[in-house]
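note to self: the first set is below, dont mix up w the second
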Amino acid sequence: MENYTMEGRTYRYYGQEAPLYPFGYGLSYTTFRYRDLVLSPPVLPVCANLSVSVVLENTGLRDSEEVVQLYLRWEQSSVPVPRWQLVAFRRVAVLAGREAKLSFQVLAEQRAVWAQDWRLEPGTFTLFAGGQQPGQKTRAPSEVLSARFSVTGTARPLRTC
């Protein structure tokens, strides 16, 4: 094998074609609603972590569990990167008609790109939160919220943070 590129070979690098069964695919016996996605701080230094909170509400008639998934997208990068990358997930049980506020940390190292060494780069990023991948069409409807944040400073090796 001479071509080690991952393009077209894993769900992270599929072009416009969606995988048949994307990560998080499945059925539920209830419905959920996502709201109040908050990123803090919305502008952070290159080596800082991002705090994320989101509210998950069970709008159905049955108690159930949802796998809340966070995906990160680089808006611009100096090297090829995935369309989006799973950076956190959590299975949460929510009673019918109730809600849960969830908190996550997205570490600086999760934004690192490989350019002969793991590097952190400034720029604009989009974070997605929901019960499925962004843009997924093969599952029962589920909201996927998104919010942008910016990273300031100069590019630097991850090991220097």
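second set (the one i keep forgetting abt)
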Amino acid sequence: RCENLVEVYFQLQQQVMAASTELGPELLSRLLERFNEVLSSLVKSSFLVEKQPPQVLKTQTKFQASVRFLLGPRLLKAAPKPYMVRADMVTEKQARELELSNYSNTLSESTGEILHNTVALETNPTSGNCCANFKNVLLKKIKRCERKGSESVTEEKCAVLFSTNVTLTPSNISIHLQVLSLPIVVIVHGNQDNNAKATVLWDNAFSDIDRVPFVVAERVPWDKMCDTLNLKFMAEVQTTKGL
């Protein structure tokens, strides 16, 4: 579907260039600028997290994740060498700022130290998918935010930001791609695991799809909570019988 839209884009661009004399330099310039904006928006929306990092993540523990660039096979096939994707930890505040800027801003500082956090974005010759697979990533340490009142570290949500810079062919446009993982709770000890899972469960169950990161309702009706606990129970026990 994305590839079809890109093909339509390039066909329209060719038609505009063919009619450049009739359009005149001023209108042609405006149209080409608009074409670049449309292409940039389409390309940015096709950079996705394919395999999410664990939503409860313990420091000094290896984990895996992957991102996929849907338009990579079409737009990066003439690249002289693979582009590199970087993974960084971001706070909820940083995630919110990136969201509000429509991901036009770049990350100024990572909130944690991740080892092996740079991976090549490559097209698999068998599947044809353009992916960056993080197979041996380790969160070495996390920089905690200031907490309010009795707020626990297991209520603090962060995320992994995946980013890269690509130059598209044949248009030769440079674009910065960024995508956030689902919210993550970082723990340093096993005794924090249950509270962290509770934060994640609440966020996954009661957050809106289109939201400012990572805003979620503080209270919900009991019937919604009951349904969530029921689904969680059946998933954990692997049964079709509810509570």
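remember for set 2: Helices lie at 2-18, 20-23, 25-45, 72-75, 92-100, 193-206, 222-237.
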